[in-house]
Amino acid sequence: MKERRHRGREPLRGKKRRLVLRGVLLSVACVVGLASLWTVVGPVVRSRRVERTIAFFERKPSQAGADELVGLLREHAATAEQGERILAMLLRPAVATRARYAPGRPASITLERPFRVDFQDTLWSQDKVEIEGTFRTMRSGSSGKISQFVHVEVLSADHATPGVHSVTVRCAYSLGLQRRRFTSQMTKRLWEALRAIRLPVPGLSQPTARTYECDFTIPLEVIVAGEGEGETIQLVSSPELDEAMRVAFGLRAPGSAPSKSAMGLDYRNLPTDVAFRTTLRLSDEKGLAMPVSHSWQSQHGRWRGRAGRSGRLSLDHWWRSIQTGTTYRGTLTLEPDPEHAYEDPAIKAIWGGTLVIPISYDASSGLVTVLPGDAGSD
Asked: Exposed (0-12), middle (13-18) or buried (19+): which is 134, by Cβ within 10 Å?
């Protein structure tokens, strides 16, 4: 009797095993089928998503929308043609020119890109600006951060003769992007499932590189005035503006905490456009007095900034020449520089005062401190 019962259980257990095996095989088939289907349908879905995002951005441009478009490029969701349109929307600049340039002086323009763009994880990038077929700026490297302001000389002093000059500006940008490993949660789950059963689908498991490019031209007319009729930089000043400038550069009331920053001088919320000649003097036995360098905008101790901006006037280049752990004391003098301001045609007027900023510099830590005392402005 017991034997008959035992024999009856065996077919039942075998049947259960077959059902479980069929379920597993069916699941595997579904996963493989979905993955294969996604390799065909996925590009269409992504393309439609990109088109919707582009259309929304065209109706209502914003920094948030620009960041979303950058994300689509980083995911390789956009085709080459869509990528070209996206880059053109993000990078096509507004052009700032002077109404009337002075004769016999170089004439420059400013290309102002409308959005902050940082692609991160860039394999390589190249940003080129040509004037009449001649390269004026070309930046190459692996940084995905795009300069928002580019200053370009369009006429040399010799060619800046009175009259109307037709100029063609060509902008070209290209970059290589490594795709982020997973472009969506669905792709991630499929990849994990396929990896678990050791059935990878090409295109899902390995990231690839993709190149995006854009290229466009901007025609301009540059007007050079007659002698003495060109634009000049106005110097502006008032007690209220002078005090606001002191505060912007960390010159605070007696008794307040000193302003400190690393390898430079922090400034906050510039109350108006500025352009300075910068001179640094330190109290050592050699009586050093050297110009200060500030990123790519600076030339031989010259620096300029836009109203409302915050940042750091870097002293790093100069500090590198100091090879000792001594703490120095001295002054950083900022004097108005209309000639440097003239190179940026968006600047029409600058602060006309002078700041004499007492500082100390700890050469071992690189810490710059704005000192209280005889700080002044003229």
From this structure: exposed
Sequence-ordered list of residues with C-beta below 8 angstroms from that of 300, at least 6 positions apart, any chain: 291
Give alpha helix (H) positions in 177-282.
185-196, 239-248
CB 309 within 8 A of CB 248: no
> Beta-carbon neighbour count of residue 87 at 10 Å?
24
Contacts of 73 (CB under 8 A, 6+ apart): 83, 86, 87, 119, 177, 212
The pLDDT assigned to 38 comes to 44
Q: What was the pLDDT predicted at 192?
A: 56
Which residue is listed with tokens 């370009």?
A: 152
Give strand ranges (E) for the chain. 94-96, 107-112, 122-131, 134-141, 149-155, 163-178, 209-224, 234-236, 260-262, 264-267, 274-282, 289-291, 302-305, 311-314, 327-336, 349-351, 355-362, 367-370, 376-377
Of the candidates 194, 160, 169, 50, which has an alpha carbon nearest to the alpha carbon of residue 112?
169
DSSP 131-176: ETTEEEEEEEES--BPPSEEEEEEE-TTT--SEEEEEEEEEEEEEE
Q: Kindly state the tokens that stand for 118.
A: 């940082």
How many helices (H) and strands (E) would you count in the chain? 7, 19
For residues 288 and 346, the answer to whether their CB atoms sit within 8 Å is no
Domain ranges of the chain: 1-228, 234-377
pTM: 0.70
Q: What pLDDT score was predicted for residue 5?
A: 52
Hey, what are 244's tokens? 């606001």
Report CA Rg, the chain. 31
Strand 355-362, strand 234-236: pairing: unpaired
What's residue 202's pLDDT? 47
Within 8 A by CB and 6+ apart from 166, the residues are 219, 220, 221, 222
CB–CB of 251/357 below 8 Å?
yes
- Rounded mean pLDDT for each run of 10 residues along the chain, 378 residues in total: 52 61 56 48 71 93 93 88 93 92 92 88 84 77 78 90 93 82 53 54 56 92 92 94 91 66 84 91 57 39 89 75 70 91 93 91 79 60
Q: How far is CA 58 from CA 61, 70, 89, 90, in A?
A: 6, 15, 8, 11
Task: Find residue 121's DSSP bridge partners.
Answer: none
Which tokens is 279 given?
């001179």
